[in-house]
Amino acid sequence: MTDPNDPTEFQQPTARGEIHLGDLLLALKKLPWKDDAQAAAIARSLGFSLEELISKEITPNTIFDNSRFPEHRKTVSPSRNQPPGSSVPPQPKPPVELPSIPFDSPLKPLGAQAAPQIVETPAWLNENNTTLDRDETPPVPLHRESLFSDNTNRGILSAALATRRPGYQIDVFRLINHFVTGKIPRTLPCLMSNTLERGCQLLLHYSDDMVPYWEDLAALATQIKNIMGQDRVDLYEFKGLPDNANTWVPPKTFKQWQPVSGIPVLVATDLGIDGGKGENNIEEEWLSFMRKCEAAEAPLLLLIPWQRQYWPENLGDYPFLIHWNPHTSAAMIRRLIGPGHGVMS
Amino acid sequence: MKYDPRKFDLAENYIFEEEGDIEPYLFSEDIAIAVDVAFATERPLLISGKPGSGKSRLAEAVAALKKWHFLSKTMTSRTRLEELTVELDHLRRLHDAHSGNGGQNGDGSAMKPDWAYHNPGLFWWALNHESAKYRGDGRQAEAEAMGLAIDFPGTFRKQENNTHHTVLLIDEIDKAEPDLPNDLLEPLDRKAFGLPDGSKIMAKDGVSILTIITTNGERELPQAFLRRCVSLKLEEPKKRDLIRIARKHYPDADEARITTIAEKMETFREEAKKSFRRPPSTSEFLDAVRVCEDLEIAIDDSKDSVWKKVENSVLLKKSNDNDQA
Q1: A268: which strand partners?
Q2: B34-93 tens-digit pLDDT
Q3: Domain segments of chain B: what residues?
Q4: Alpha helices in B85-209 (DSSP H)
Q5: Is B101 near chain A, with CB under 8 Å?
Q6: How would CATH label the architecture of B15-91+94-233?
Q7: ipTM for the complex?
Q8: Which of B:247-266 have CB within 8 Å of A?
């Protein structure tokens, strides 16, 4: 144990930092690996994908395997590989059958000689203008950043969904009050702290108007599960109104959504406004849904992709309205909600 | 050619034999390599895998193989860093200050020095066993006089040269609040942490610690935390390994019955994957073997057989009529 008053003793132990190539070299030097497979296993346990280096040519992207956790990939369409509880996208309409009666066309068919036959290489195609080699590798889909980015979603969603519970920091003012009145408290008075232990209900709006955001809905579900834990997130979907939200319970039943006291309800929706300015008033059924959450004392958060000026004006005070946008920050959420939803454990 | 671990002794058949209360453990080559890498690089070992796949058992087995002390703590949503490093017992201090019955001090209160209210957590025990026992360095005489010495809160093994190496298990870290893994970075990284009075507890010279952290993958862990850990994913054992595991746990069990249950496990796992159900785990497989052995239940697939009831209650755990499909 060091003495804080002795400057010669009080020194910071060295931090090791993140795993780096030095760790890999150290492990490969110290350990008795016998073949490429064992060396690859050593590298894999340290987060390096050495198999790629052994089997394929070296490319800069394979030196550190960032894709250890494939669930981070954002390019999966919400219509594919959906977890249980995710809705099936609407099937495309069958093509309209064409009438079987042949039509006479006034156009004359072109003869085989109509197309000029190029037999000689054009003069401009010489050694100075060679054709490019065809790229045989399959096209890689572009990385798609979701509406809450990888860097910010953890802070934003934690701030939005945190509830309050008695913490561990002593509430000095209440403690002094006990002393002044000459009473020993049975339990120590503590300040409140934030927690995610209550989990949340996530309602995703899979309407046709929300099609541009379907990938974001899927990404949002993954983000929330990653932060709060799989077991603490109840995922529901709806198409028209949130009251009808349900979730698939394997193998063949659906569970209807009901608000639960103290558990935040997060609804990702466009509120049916479709980005239009309309009458700026929301349907009565939505208001009824909000009243239902309020009656159950379930904090309600609406995540809306459209800009603020399109939001309906008659939503009332109960729901917290959050702009689902890359510019939204955790600080904005904390200003909106405060230190956490005031439901008590 | 099989990997021969350098940092710990493992039998050629890769099996850790039962030792006292610790159950036998079947190592795979991936497990042996990952444990060896964690020892060689002195990094924490993060083990992920389905519940019941043997993550916590592995930590116990490694501690027994190395003959090191073993400490463990299972995380909950209320676990904080202070529980793992040091907590100040505020309430006892408050009572001592307020009650005049002790009379140890001039003012008649039973108030003790600040260090007497330190409750050491697992990191303190692992970093410096002696100072944790007496709640601070050089406090042995005072602590013993006041009856404040604490017993080791885990499995204590006598080691050569009076060393105190420890395997420290932090179990189910994904159950804790999302910030806890980040809070752990300092004690894991620097092998040190601060006490409430501002002094620091650091690893005693020559003391080695292997921190094993387990996760069921229910929650994503912060990248900064992941990048400091050696990672190991425990795969589901194949039929052959299931039989070997069962044979080690229950050497006298009927081999044909074990084989049949192992075959059924493979079928159940396939079905579970298709229907998004949770597959039965290795520990549930061992439960089924034990039940069938103890109660002499034959594996009979007819609808009303006892085996079908066992299958449902121990392996499939179907909870309602909807699951019966």
Answers
A1: A204, A303
A2: 999 999 999 999 999 988 888 999 999 999 999 999 999 999 988 989 999 999 888 888
A3: 15-91+94-233, 239-315
A4: 90-98, 122-127, 129-133, 140-145, 180-183, 185-190
A5: no
A6: 3-Layer(aba) Sandwich (3.40)
A7: 0.80
A8: none
